[in-house]
């Protein structure tokens, strides 16, 4: 849905004496005049032989070369255009893992004051295949009836399987819930006026209850420890602002959600240090690897403030067990750092495993509570990304105090809070919704994974999330990132499906792809498989 | 440990200024007609509660808008999944047309240059991130909205340098004041990136004059810097002279397609004009493609709920409703404004002549024991604890002259406003009572000093708590 915009070419045309009139902010107009005054006297000198023509061509040429020389001196850095979204696969192969960094060339400025450095780097079109793929698929979206040749979107982890349940509830309960007073008369002051910018208390109570329900009621959440934000995106950024200064770092196990690179780094100046996990351990997190990364950072003089984990993991779809959570806590205690646990997919489980929240293992351990912070939101488990509801849950009262004040920059709309208070308080409905969603996700997962298996593509064993982590390493040639991106490109252009390549998630092993299946209907699965088959056959 | 970032621990959020402390006191002892008739009346909140009935009747007549329906068909699915940071096109279209209508259709806006944010608070911060690097500065005319110290500076690292305005000319911006501010910034080794004005002004309640706007255009052209015009009160202008938008001035001077055109940005919101602060709807408007592009992406950190966008797109597209609402709302504001200023006049208190906003800029200099900010604080505390009114002292707005206060009039019922005016009258009368009450005053003063000491102690304790961990 993001419009691709090819950038204006920043190189300037050489300024000929007959060039454009000076603009209010322009700086080069004066230069042309001065140069002319130097050159014209020369004209008389050459006028003897060749006349007017030589007399004007030579100074003109001299002037042209002079401008060219000036321009080369002026531009300190190379002017490289970032690849436009419709780049060929050859260009894609040049995408390095740190592609965002290679695009830090400054624009040629046309006026004396430009936008900030931050804005400059943010404004550039994003070169990651994660974003490119999302855009392409949204420009030509598949529809079983209206656009059967369109691109099928398997790169966006959105759950559309149970929206019908929510829609029905809303249409049946809306009037009562949104603005209706006890006497049936509309009373807008409850939603129109300023509300606490970190969320209404009733909303916090409702969300805390929902979090508990969705995580299996084995843990309860204290509403006073919640700060609500307009989505999980600002939740994670706000937490970064609270826990780290510019230049500090977080350890993040790979592969990880591509959005973290944007959400956590853009405006905070915080760094992410990848801690690589491998397929040999089923991409399990190893404390040894964390320790190594921490020590290396220290040697570099980089201060590590915490670990960011996503549990259930995005893009793998596995869950951390109690022992791992305990050892993470031990590690954090030993290094005196924080743990941010992004648990946004906690309710989207489909295996036999039970989800264990960080909050759960802290029940008895009071001492380390201050280090643990949880991110949550209603975009995945409740299928409502448009409503913008995110959560920071922390046991640390200082973090909460700071986050509460920062929430003013990303507060949740009051009418939306009203309607959700109503819905989330209908615990019977919520229970039914949670159970139905789980069943539907599982059905889709089983069908999808089986379909991939038939093509010889295995997925990591997973029990949660809206996607599977597929091993297509056998299909890529050469066995590296270039080969992976070529396959991604073929899947997009020939197979007409958008999946997320592992390199966009910083996976250390090439050939892995995240395939989201909850945006499809059951009938679409065979279509997807057939399309992948088409590409697979090309490769073998 | 459990160490927090510098930003989280330091007082850079300005939360401990009196402006916010008054609110805390109010929350502890809030006035209620029935339950707490001697409580503190909130006159420090610039909220418009005068026209809820108009909104309620519109909602009652248009159930589809809140019901996720378009032409009777449910569009719930579409809205539930809509999180495009380009915003709902129908809403942006309706919003730019509404903005145009408020400006008497003398200016038209392009919806593709509009970026939606969760409130003007988010819009202002985002613009700072886009236009300035940490350590650079923006010039702001004083007095200004206390929230700017937090919104513009906190996470962005940007500095504010005040443009000192004085009561001698009604706090208007002068060329010398602009130059002086610029020099000040240079002395502090701060690179000035632009000027930010609020038009109509908060806390003055006046529209910026055409002369001032032209002056500003000249200034930013000469210095090659940006101009942000925060126009969130543009629809609350209830008296002449009317509202003149910066865009109008630029167009009159034929500045379209110049460099300067691209350096002027507008911030808007529906919190004041439409009385819907709870909805969290703000916007940035800019003619600079790079700013729009960066701001659009940054808006990911503060998107407006799709449900809200849709509801408002229907409301604002109802041109009959918006026209009626804006004019009726302005009438009611004018009437309330009149009520406040005559009530204050009755107590011997004057206000700055104003024609907009939800508040008055009140002159209480004659009630100060001395022409100092300490005296202003003393007076403010008396008004808060004894008169039981929460108003905003000029010092929290960085006013250079002590004795001015911002008093809001649109966030309460008429009865409550009357009560507040009665209390003020009683207070002024008792303060000017003659010397035979002097001894009583003396003992009262001692009591007040004790509670003052207690208050300071509480304040410092709070401070310590915040920075300790």
TrEMBL record, chain A:
Keywords: Membrane, Pyridoxal phosphate, Transmembrane, Transmembrane helix. Residues 1-32, 76-111 are annotated as: Disordered. InterPro entries: Aminotransferase_I/II_large, Ethylene_sulfur-biosynth, NHTrfase_class1_PyrdxlP-BS, PyrdxlP-dep_Trfase, PyrdxlP-dep_Trfase_major, PyrdxlP-dep_Trfase_small. The chain crosses the membrane at residues 51-70. It comes from the Eukaryota. Residues 153-532 form the Aminotransferase class I/classII large domain. Residues 86-111 have a biased composition (Low complexity). One of its GO terms (molecular function) is 1-aminocyclopropane-1-carboxylate synthase activity. It holds the Pfam family Aminotran_1_2. Belongs to the class-I pyridoxal-phosphate-dependent aminotransferase family. PANTHER family: AMINOTRANSFERASE ACS12-RELATED, BIFUNCTIONAL ASPARTATE AMINOTRANSFERASE AND GLUTAMATE/ASPARTATE-PREPHENATE AMINOTRANSFERASE-RELATED. This is Aminotransferase class I/classII large domain-containing protein. It comes from Vitis vinifera.
TrEMBL record, chain B:
Coiled coil: none annotated. Residues 41-424 form the Aminotransferase class I/classII large domain. Its cofactor is pyridoxal 5'-phosphate. GO terms for molecular function: 1-aminocyclopropane-1-carboxylate synthase activity; pyridoxal phosphate binding; transaminase activity. Signal peptide: none annotated. Its EC number is 4.4.1.14. GO terms for biological process: amino acid metabolic process; ethylene biosynthetic process; fruit ripening. This is 1-aminocyclopropane-1-carboxylate synthase.
């Amino acid at each position: 849905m993001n419009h691709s915009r090819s950038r204006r070419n920043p190189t300037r045309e050489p300024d000929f004496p007959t060039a454009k009139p000076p603009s209010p902010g322009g700086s080069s107009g004066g230069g042309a005049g001065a140069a002319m005054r130097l050159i014209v006297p020369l004209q008389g000198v050459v006028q003897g032989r060749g006349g007017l023509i030589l007399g004007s061509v030579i100074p003109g040429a001299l002037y042209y070369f002079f401008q060219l020389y000036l321009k080369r001196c002026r531009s300190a850095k190379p002017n490289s255009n970032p690849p436009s979204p419709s780049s060929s696969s050859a260009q894609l192969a040049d995408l390095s893992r740190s592609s965002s960094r290679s695009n830090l060339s400054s624009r040629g400025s046309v006026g004396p004051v430009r936008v900030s450095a931050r804005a400059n780097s943010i404004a550039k079109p994003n070169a990651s295949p994660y974003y490119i793929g999302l855009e392409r698929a949204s420009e030509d979206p598949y529809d079983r009836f209206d656009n059967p040749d369109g691109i099928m979107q398997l790169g966006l982890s959105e759950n559309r399987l149970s929206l019908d349940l929510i829609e029905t509830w809303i249409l049946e309960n809306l009037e009562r819930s949104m603005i209706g007073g006890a006497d049936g008369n509309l009373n807008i002051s409850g939603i129109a006026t300023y509300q606490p910018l970190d969320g209404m208390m009733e909303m916090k109570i409702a969300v805390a209850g929902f979090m508990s329900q969705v995580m299996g009621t084995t843990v309860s959440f204290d509403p006073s420890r919640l700060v609500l934000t307009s989505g999980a995106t600002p939740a994670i950024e706000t937490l970064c602002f609270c826990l780290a200064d510019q230049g500090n770092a977080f350890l993040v196990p790979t592969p990880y959600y591509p959005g973290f690179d944007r959400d956590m780094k853009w405006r905070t100046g915080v760094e992410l240090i990848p801690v690589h996990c491998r397929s040999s351990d089923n991409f399990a997190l190893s404390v040894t690897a964390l320790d190594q990364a921490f020590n290396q950072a220290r040697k570099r003089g980089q201060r590590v403030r915490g670990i960011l984990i996503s549990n259930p993991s995005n893009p793998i779809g596995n869950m951390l067990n109690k022992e791992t959570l305990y050892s993470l806590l031990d590690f954090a205690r030993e290094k005196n750092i924080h743990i941010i646990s992004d648990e946004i997919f906690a309710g989207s489980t489909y295996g036999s495993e039970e989800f264990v929240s960080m909050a759960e293992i802290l029940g008895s351990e009071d001492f380390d509570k201050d280090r643990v912070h949880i991110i949550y939101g209603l975009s995945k488990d409740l299928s409502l990304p448009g409503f913008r509801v995110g959560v920071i849950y922390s046991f640390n009262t200082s973090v909460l105090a700071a986050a509460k004040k920062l929430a003013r920059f990303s507060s949740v709309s009051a009418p939306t809070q009203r309607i959700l208070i109503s819905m989330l308080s209908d615990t019977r409905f919520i229970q039914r919704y949670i159970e139905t969603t789980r069943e539907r996700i599982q059905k889709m997962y089983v069908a999808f994974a089986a379909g991939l298996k038939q093509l010889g593509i295995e997925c990591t064993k997973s029990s949660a999330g809206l996607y599977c982590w597929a091993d297509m390493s056998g299909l890529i040639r050469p066995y590296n990132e270039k080969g992976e991106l070529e396959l991604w490109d073929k899947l997009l252009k020939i197979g007409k499906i958008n999946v997320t390549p592992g390199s966009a998630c910083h996976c250390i092993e090439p050939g892995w792809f995240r395939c989201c299946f909850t945006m499809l209907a059951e009938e679409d699965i065979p279509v997807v498989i057939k399309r992948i088959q088409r590409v697979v056959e090309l490769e073998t | 440990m459990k160490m927090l970032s510098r930003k989280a621990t330091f007082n850079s959020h300005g939360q401990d200024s009196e402006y916010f402390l008054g609110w805390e006191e109010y929350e502890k002892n809030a006035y209620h007609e029935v339950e707490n008739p001697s409580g503190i009346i909130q006159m420090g909140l610039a909220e418009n509660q005068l026209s809820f009935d108009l909104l309620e009747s519109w909602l009652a007549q248009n159930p589809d808008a809140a019901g996720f329906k378009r032409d009777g068909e449910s569009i719930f699915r579409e809205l539930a999944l809509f999180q495009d940071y380009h915003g709902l096109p129908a809403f942006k279209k309706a919003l730019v047309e509404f903005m145009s209508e408020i400006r008497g259709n003398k200016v038209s806006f392009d919806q593709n240059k509009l970026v939606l944010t969760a409130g003007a608070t988010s819009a202002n911060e985002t613009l700072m991130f886009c236009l300035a690097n940490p350590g650079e500065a923006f010039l702001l005319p004083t007095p200004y909205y206390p929230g700017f110290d937090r919104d513009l500076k906190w996470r962005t690292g940007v500095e504010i340098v005040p443009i000192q305005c004085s009561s001698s000319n009604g706090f208007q911006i002068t060329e010398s004041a602009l130059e002086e501010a610029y020099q000040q910034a240079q002395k502090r080794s701060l690179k000035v990136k632009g000027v930010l004005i609020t038009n109509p002004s908060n806390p003055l309640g006046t529209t910026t004059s055409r002369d001032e706007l032209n002056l500003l255009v000249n200034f930013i052209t000469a210095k090659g810097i940006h101009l942000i015009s925060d126009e969130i009160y543009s629809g609350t202008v209830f008296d002449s002279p009317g509202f003149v938008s910066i865009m109008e001035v630029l167009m009159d001077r034929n500045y379209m397609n110049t460099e300067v055109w691209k350096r002027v940005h507008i911030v808007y919101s529906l919190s004041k004009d439409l009385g819907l602060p709870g909805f969290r709807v703000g916007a940035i408007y800019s003619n600079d493609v790079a700013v729009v592009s960066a701001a659009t992406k940054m808006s990911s950190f503060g998107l407006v709920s799709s449900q809200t966008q849709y509801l408002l797109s229907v409301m604002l597209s109802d041109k009959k409703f918006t026209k009626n609402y804006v004019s009726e709302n302005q009438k009611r504001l004018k009437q309330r404004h009149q009520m406040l200023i005559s009530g204050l006049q009755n107590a011997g208190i004057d206000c700055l002549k104003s024609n907009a906003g939800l508040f008055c800029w009140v002159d209480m200099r004659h009630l100060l024991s001395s022409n100092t900010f300490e005296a202003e604080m003393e007076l403010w505390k008396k008004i808060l604890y004894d008169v039981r009114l929460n108003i905003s002292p000029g010092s929290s707005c960085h006013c250079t002259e002590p004795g001015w206060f911002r008093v809001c009039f649109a966030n309460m019922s008429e009865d409550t406003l009357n009560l507040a005016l009665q209390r003020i009258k009683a207070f002024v009368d008792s303060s000017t009572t003659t010397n035979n009450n002097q001894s009583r005053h003396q003992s009262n003063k001692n009591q007040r000093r004790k509670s003052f000491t207690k208050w300071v102690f509480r304040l410092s304790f709070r401070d310590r708590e915040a920075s300790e961990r």
